[in-house]
Amino acid sequence: MGFSKQVSILGCGWLGLPLAKAFLQQGYRVLGSTTTTSKANQLQALGIEPFVFAAEEVPAAFLQSPVFVVTITPQPEAVIQQLVAQIKKHPPQLLVVTSSTSVYPDVPNTVTEADAVHQENRSGIDLLALEQLYRQAFPQTASIVRLGGLFGPDRNPARFFKGRPVSNANQSVNMTHLDDAVQAIITLVNQQAGGKVYNAVSPEHPTREAFYTAAAEKAGFPKPQTSTNNMAGKVVSSAAIIRELNYTFIHPNPIAAL
């Protein structure tokens, strides 16, 4: 069953704003949220209907879209519980939530969507638990898009290691270019793929040394020092989104995308 081309995007930041622009280009009416009036003016100038609010207090009008996309940074579980309760008042036909491949353990093999585990990130947040709040509330309509290390315009990965060595240099990277993060979500929405979990990670996985050295060269930084260990890292598979949604990565090789 189809739905009208209207989407609400909770969080119009580094990912959410380009996503909003992409939806506009596809003919969608786009409602976008921000927490500042200055950003609201920017959204309005682009043709996005701006809403200024925090995640705990979503205006009723913002909940009226048949497609609802959540791109905000991970929040404490209590905040997401409040958000889910508000979305329940006007359940969308499709709810898309961005998450991270940090839900996977550091194991020396390839991991798929079924391999996520409960663990706290550096901010003390269990991303898998947050995903489950959405999926338990909307089992047929909530889809999760797990993104790798995000990079693209104004976000050169070399900045993470400027002035310090690249650790575990022989391990593989799991990166997602902004273009693919946006297009993966657009593809999922256009195919109305509710109730799914997909990794959206570049299918090629160079070593950390190769990737961050290339990123440093691109940014004009000195070549970073490296340190290695004997343990192989995880490789996140995007086979499911390629197979089920027929998704073709814009940037399959993250080094070439720098």
Please specify the SSE layout and strand pairing.
Blueprint: E1 6-10, H1 16-25, E2 29-34, H2 37-45, E3 49-52, E4 67-70, H3 77-87, E5 94-100, E6 110-111, H4 127-137, E7 142-147, E8 149-151, E9 175-177, H5 178-190, E10 197-200, H6 208-219, E11 235-236, H7 239-244
Parallel strand pairs: 1-2, 1-4, 2-3, 4-5, 5-7, 6-11, 7-10, 8-9
Helix pairs in contact: 1-5, 3-4
User: What would CATH call the class?
Assistant: Alpha Beta
CATH H level, superfamily name: NAD(P)-binding Rossmann-like Domain
Spans of 5+ residues with little confidence (pLDDT < 50)?
none
Q: What is the count of β-strands?
A: 11
The assigned CATH architecture is 3-Layer(aba) Sandwich
What is the helix/strand order? EHEHEEHEEHEEEHEHEH
Strand order of the largest sheet: 3-2-1-4-5-7-10
Helix content: 25-40%
Describe this structure in a few short sentences.
With 258 residues, the protein is α/β, with parallel strands linked by helices.
Can you give keywords for this protein?
alpha/beta; 7-stranded parallel beta sheet; two-stranded parallel sheet
Structure description:
This protein is an alpha/beta fold. The protein has one domain (6-152, 174-205, 236-244): Rossmann fold (3-Layer(aba) Sandwich), CATH 3.40.50.720. Helix content is 28%, strand content 18%. It is built from seven helices and eleven strands. It has helices spanning 16-25, 37-45, 77-87, 127-137, 178-190, 208-219, 239-244, and strands spanning 6-10, 29-34, 49-52, 67-70, 94-100, 110-111, 142-147, 149-151, 175-177, 197-200, 235-236. The strands form three sheets. A seven-stranded parallel beta sheet has the order 3-2-1-4-5-7-10, with helices on both faces. It has a two-stranded parallel ribbon with strand order 6-11. A two-stranded parallel ribbon has the order 8-9. Helix 1 (16-25) crosses helix 5 (178-190). It is globular.
